[in-house]
């Protein structure tokens, strides 16, 4: 066999060849066309939300609600255009895409041209439907960016946002290895108090599935085989805040900052001056986020950590209406309807004029509004009591506490669970509001 | 100085109302809390209530009650009002607004479909009668401290408003009806009756119907004792007074007390004083003091020395109701049943278990100078005298109450054995299919924290019996048929028939062959079809309890006592219901009566077919079956219709 006088498998050769292959290729995230094609007159709201339905009806836009069969009688009684659909419990995202075919066919018949997700679990459904409406499967994948926490963080990382170190894990052994490696990097493997890491469920809303791991024993005691697969992440130290960003044509139309006065319990809008001070930093980070995630339309609800060194770290981002009555707080102080703004921003067909009329440009907040979520604390409860000094406080706005219809309550042991009612506050002094929002955590509103 | 109402509060309310009025029907719930909150602020002053009352039509039409329990006023139940008023939060505010709406309807200022002025009025009357304690708040330190400030003030203000708008006369009628319904059943525990009578007494100063005034006076007299000599006399004073009376005067006193006691089943403290005195000084007057029947007199005469002992040990002021029990016990002639006297005597000197002693002594106020044995004897007297007056109180223990009642009627010796075992040994045992079951070895029953407003015998026995019953249920599970088939005969004893039939198919949980069930019951229980066999012992049956709208609330245990024709010649089922409720409405016009249809005090009754429509399981004698086929199809169909349209809505029906 003749031998060539050239070494084809030498390092230099391969390396140079590989570099040539890079030339002229489009690298980085695939940019998608987010425009809504000219088909179908209606918008479909995926998920049941009365304030959203009210908003779209007020705007007199053609719409239909897609939600569970259980809501059908109510919808029929009140003439709400409705299509019943059982979303079921798909085991993986691909199953959603496959199953969305039937729903898509139905919605096309109903003259739907665009869908908007209302809840965390409907984000991928809406993504799948919009993908079919636009004939572009990438639209579906794009929606998963807001659902799969590992994919989300990786994308943020690639996009240049600061994120903690993270890994996807399949079992306790992998959590242990991650815990050790992180602390090794921090030179804390021999420390009495290693840094904690966080374990999170891959795709649950809020704090559900979240565990803080302080030691290897914690891995055994706080996690079970059912916890997996999950995500582990190094600890980010600092203030946790959330934003509600209304985006249209890739531009921020309105950005609200929410202060978590007491995580899981109370929020305040706008935040105290100390936090508001970081607005420019936050805006900068949000713009990076919009770029990194290729967001053109919609409302995002990202969470950031602001460290002691005034650096902003990305926590996570959701593509849905935030919990904790944050929209109600925005409505209270900024005097526009965020439920409507959410729908307008989600629809590429919305005109600039329409948006500008609806969403204030430079909004001046009327005081501070706070919400306090009330959870039952006793195993059996039969009535409601409101602390009299709270009810008579000038900053007390209203509460929504009814006598519970069930008397025994089961602690679900996962996330903060559903709150049974809310206390709303409104006043000019953010410190006073913060105080009221923290004072009653241990108070028994339900007894 | 008259305080002018803050008009800004009304304006704020109207503004919220307008927002709600202008929104879509489906979005009302989003605005309800705003409107309610604004209403709550108005409720803080008197004029605020009138202002809300005037806006009642508007706020209801705006949707304040939409999709809430208050939406349909015709479906509201007066006895639930108090709970909602005390529930706090928006529940209380909604309830108050609902009452104001009712006033507007009752007064004719708000014409509303689905409910008439009269219906609204009678609803409010009943509400007021049931909440008379709010109408006349007690000015005690306790009430003041326990009061919940703002909410309590609002509630009292509402009832003052109701009193202004409606006549108290109609309330007294309601109240008298409630009391007479309870009294008719002659319960052993009368705390609730006494409380209501005390409230009713306050109405006497107001303008009310003469007949109500008279009725209330009778109840008050029965409790306070208004004989010639006892009027305005406390027990110590009365005791001294009667010492100087001649026998004739004593006799008049005795007759007077006996009369009110027999009329109401309520005992006055001074009656006890008198009977204890008579017992020592004039035992020949005992029959008068108790107004005994001939049978009672004979029983007394036969056992006079024992009865005297019994009075000394078991008839005391803090447990005065046992005096009525004694009278009824003698009338029943129970003492002539051979195991009863030795059984009672055993309790006199029983060495009580420390736990038993504690429970018994806790049931009275202390410092009364009465021993735990005396308390237990008083309890036994009541149970033997008023077998149908035994109640389950606030406990879910209908099965055990039913047992105590059955044994008191038919096996007093057995009952006394159980009481002695429980009180002395802290244990009750029973043999089930060859194996001994001891209550002391068992942990869980239906009730883990017994509500202690119970008669002394129930206080001692129920915890043991309840655990045994639950253990029997546990051991009989997964046998492919309803557990009661085995549990009831084992628990109650051989008085329960071995044949058993249930509407629910145990394997599928559905209703299978309902017509067959109905026919079998008619064929074994209805005199027209069962060849005339009489019911000899009470039959422990299971029933579906339904509310006034026929909706299923749950299962309940009662005993069929007897089956007989009522004064109108209609066949009725007379049954013992351990929950001693005065008036029950089971929906579809099915309302058990407690008096007026020949009921023995303590019995409830229903027309035969109505009772069957709520029946869930029963026992029968396999050797005494009549002609089930002969039951007319129309009857079976009528029962089936009642069943299907009430509790049956929550069950699957299978045709065989």
UniProtKB/TrEMBL annotation, chain A:
Annotated keywords: ATP-binding, Ligase, Nucleotide-binding
Chain segments carrying region Disordered: 1-23
Ranges for domain ATP-grasp: 153-347
InterPro entries noted in UniProt: ATP-dep_AA_Ligase, ATP-grasp
Feature: compositional bias, Polar residues: 1-16
Name recorded for this polypeptide: ATP-grasp domain-containing protein
Keyword ATP-binding tagged: yes
GO molecular function: ATP binding; ligase activity; metal ion binding
SUPFAM superfamilies: Glutathione synthetase ATP-binding domain-like (SSF56059)
UniProtKB/TrEMBL annotation, chain B:
Lineage: Bacteria, Bacillati, Bacillota, Bacilli, Bacillales
Name of this chain's protein: Uncharacterized protein
Organism: Halobacillus alkaliphilus
